[in-house]
Amino acid sequence: MKTEYEEDVRWLSDRMDEDVPYLEDMECLKEIPSEKIYAEINRRIRWRQIRSWRLKVAAVIIPLFMFAGSYNYVNNRVPLFNSGEMTEIQVPQGECLQFMFQDGSRVYLEPASKLRYPRNFALGERKIQLDGAGYFMVEKNPNRPFIIDVSGGQVQVTGTNFDLEARLNKKEIRLGLDEGKINFKSEARKEYALNPGDRIVYDKTTHLCAMTHHNELRSLSAWKNNLITFNDTPLHDALEKLERWYDVSFKIGSDGADIYSLTMNVNGSLDEALNEISKITPLVFTMENDRRIKVELRK
Known about the structure:
By secondary structure, the protein is α+β, with helices and mostly antiparallel strands. The chain has helices spanning 2-26, 34-75, 235-246, 270-280; strands at 86-91, 97-100, 106-109, 113-118, 126-137, 146-150, 153-157, 161-166, 172-179, 182-186, 191-194, 198-203, 209-213, 228-234, 249-252, 261-266, 283-287, 292-297. Helix 1 packs across helix 2 (34-75).
C-alpha cells in the first residue's frame, strides 16, 4: 500500500510541476487550496485501491465461472460423478427385455432377472449390479471399465460381448465370452482372465472355478433369439429355466424322475418343449391348477 501511495504522490507532483508555468501565467496558483490537493491525492489513492481489488476479485471469479461452465457442458454429455441414484429393472417370468445404457452398451435380460444401474455413470467407471442372467454388449472404453457386481464376485469389462448368469439364490456363477476380454474377480479375491471362447463356472460355496474352452460359444447366447439350449443339463436345472421362461412351476415326483439330463434346443411354445422332452426321456408332464405341472416317469 505504501508503494501505491508514493506513486500517486509522485504522479501528482509531476503533473503540478508541468502545470506550474501555466498556472503562474494565469495567476491562479495561489487560489488552489491545500485541502483540495490533499483530497485529490486521497481520491486517486482510493481509486487505485478499488481498481486493484476489482482485478484481484476478477482473477478469482472469472476462472471459477469458466470452470463451472465447462463442468456443466461436459457433465451434461459425460457425467463426471456418479449421482448415487440407482434405478432398478425387474424382468418378470415369461418375459425378456433388451435395455440400452447411456453409453450405448446393451444387455439382453433373461426372465426373472433384476438389474440395478446408476442414473449417471461416473467418469472413472461404469458400475451396475445384476441378479439374474443377461447377454452384454459393452461399448469399448479402456478409461471407463464396465463393472458388474454380482453375488459372489465381480466382472470387469472394457468392451466386449459375453453371457453372464449370476443369481442370488444359485450357488454357481456362469460366464462365457464371445468377443474381447474380461476378468472375473471372486469373493475369495482370486482373478480369472477370459479370452474369446472361454467359459467358467464358479462355485460360491467351495470357491472353486472350472474353466473350459469352446470354439463355438455363441450357442450360450442363443436364448436372446428365443432359442433355449440344453447341453447335458440336469433335469432340475433345465426345468428351472423353463419355469422362468414360461412362467410356470414344475413339481418333480419322488420316483426318480430327476436322474435325467437334457441335450436339446427349445424354440417354441411350452407344449412343444414338453412334447420334445417326452420324446427323449420317459417323462410325463401333467398340467395342474395355477400353471403347476407335475413331472413323473411314464408307467
